[in-house]
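User: structure tokens for this one?
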Amino acid sequence: MRLLVGPITAVGRLEAEADHVLSLISPDAAAPAVTQPRTLLRFNDIAEQREGLIAPSAAMIEAILALRDTPTLLIHCFAGVSRSTAAAYVLACATRPTGEEGALAAQLRSLCPEATPNPLMIALADRILDRGGAMARAIAGIGRGVDAYEGTVIDWRLA
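Assistant:
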């Protein structure tokens, strides 16, 4: 599986390389036009439930996991820092055996110094994938990424 991960501004130049697009955007944001098949999930980039905002849900994580057999998946959110990197990490963990969560988190950080995966998405996936908190601990272990307006575009090839 190949994951192309980045901000909304990169969709136009990366879409042609993808078999499917995963758009993770706020409820009121305009979705970029794409020609490839797309899964569009609308939720706010929040780490815990907040009144008036839409939090990521277990059903949304299941929709992300349903894409794990896509040969090349383009994942984007607004900045390419939180929601998209969380989805990429979730898919990486889903394709690798238990026990590799820390190594995958470190690999994500090396690919994108700005990566600050959404902790609520990670916690939900951790439960769904039955990782006993290993995913959440690994992401907490890499800490907050470098401050940036947009994240580095990632081309992550998973074995």
